[in-house]
Amino acid sequence: MVRPMQERAVQTRKLILRAAAESFDESGYHGAQITGILGRAGLTQGAMYFHFKSKEDLARTVMLEQAADLRLPERPAGLKQLVEITLTLAVEMQRNVLFRAGVRLAVDLEGPAVRDSSIYRWWTDRFNDELVEAHRKGELLPHVNGAELAEMLVGAYTGIQLMSQITSGRKDLPRRITSIWRYLLPGIATPEALAGITLADGAEARP
Amino acid sequence: MVRPMQERAVQTRKLILRAAAESFDESGYHGAQITGILGRAGLTQGAMYFHFKSKEDLARTVMLEQAADLRLPERPAGLKQLVEITLTLAVEMQRNVLFRAGVRLAVDLEGPAVRDSSIYRWWTDRFNDELVEAHRKGELLPHVNGAELAEMLVGAYTGIQLMSQITSGRKDLPRRITSIWRYLLPGIATPEALAGITLADGAEARP
Fold it and tell me: For an engineered disulfide with A25, which of A101, A133, B84, B167 has Cβ 3.0 to 4.6 Å away?
């Protein structure tokens, strides 16, 4: 009898996280209310407190598990895959509420990121995995330090999606992510690696 | 008798804006309170309402006038000056409360930027002025679109300062801004322009 109970608990936890993500996405950390989250999930306070002890705990979990519903490639494959991941994330930002809410909480200076910046580290490591592989395959110019570049990319991505949200409701996000690569690739990739990467809008990395 | 009154009004407005900037910098849009701002400024509500009609109005003004105390070069001079401006901003972010509060409000999704994104446009135009001059002087590679690059830089800068604030209280901001240029310059600048720009940490744009 243990197994079905555990599965039910897992489902309830997911239900709460989804409702919390919807609330944080719409209203931000301050604006979201526990009562609103419970109403969305159709659950009582008791059911929630079994899993999460406070709004801060819920927000922290949404932020840290923002990538749980993303299907990222399991094996690092290098520079081209890193470009593809960033473009996929631009699309996911428009349709995946857990990811979107997690990112919103990560840039909210009144939210949980102020006490826990590990999601920035997580993405930096994920991006760097691709750059380590890119180095191994000889795709990067010799002056590139993968860890430094990964950290720069995560910061740049964070701000570009924020600016896109504020100025266009994220409609232009894929175009803006393409812009990063258009200007960055020629300074980090070997000519051979560059030739293998085509950016959208009919524009190559180096025209 | 008109002139002294006007000057007093200008001084009062400055006093209120400074107090508001300190409050928004410390507590964010939601956390800052009108009463706290008045207490800092040593003024009554009446004195404030003569200049600003609400907290939103105050926040919008701090955000839009964030650059009022910065001494930016008056004439565009090209790529090297753009690099210097971004490094100067990294230092100003640490000591200029009006700038810091204005930037914080510009990334606050519960703040005034949600209804007025013009400060992003203002910085994009300012950065682009340098790139237009850089193009005129032949410092940029032919594929560079100044307006697109300026927009990308403003977005990237926004996120990199936010990530730096969250992970190190902005201590590492100058290093992170140097990183952008280390990887971006070789893909946008001519070899001659590149040779004229030295980045900190003893590291050249292209080692």
Answer: A101
Minimal Cα distance from A148: which residue of B? B179
B207 pLDDT tier (thresholds 50, 70, 90):
very low
Tokens 């994104």 identify what position? B117
Q: What is the mean pLDDT of residues B119-139?
A: 98
Which 3 state secondary structure label does DSSP give B17?
A: helix
Q: Any idea what DSSP says for residue B140?
A: B
Q: In the block, which residue shows the tokens 């819920």?
A: A58
CB contact under 8 A, B109 and A107: yes
Beta bridge partners of A189: A140
**Cα B131 versus chain centre, distance:** 18
Q: Are residues B175 and B123 in the same domain?
A: yes
Residue B140 β-bridge partners = B189
Q: What is the CATH number of the domain that holds A47?
A: 1.10.10.60
Angle between helices A146-168 and B173-188 (to 10 degrees): 90
* Least Cα separation, residue A4 to chain B (angstroms): 41
- Burial per residue of B129-164, b for 16 or more beta-carbon CB atoms within 10 angstroms, e otherwise: bbbbbbbeeebbbeebbbebbbbbbbbbbbbbbbbb
Partner-chain contact A109 B165, CB within 8 Å:
yes
Q: Does the beta carbon of B10 lie under 8 angstroms from any beta carbon of chain A?
A: no
Residues A13, A16, A22, A27, CA torsion sign: negative
Q: Which A residues 154-193 touch B at CB under 8 Å?
A: 154-167, 176, 179-180, 182-188
Confidence of residue B37 (pLDDT cuts 50, 70, 90): very high
User: Running along chain A, 207 residues long, what does each successive block of 10 average in pLDDT?
Assistant: 75 96 96 96 92 96 97 96 97 96 97 95 98 98 97 98 96 96 97 94 45
Check: CB of residue B125 under 8 Å from CB of residue B98: no
Residue B201 lies in a domain: no
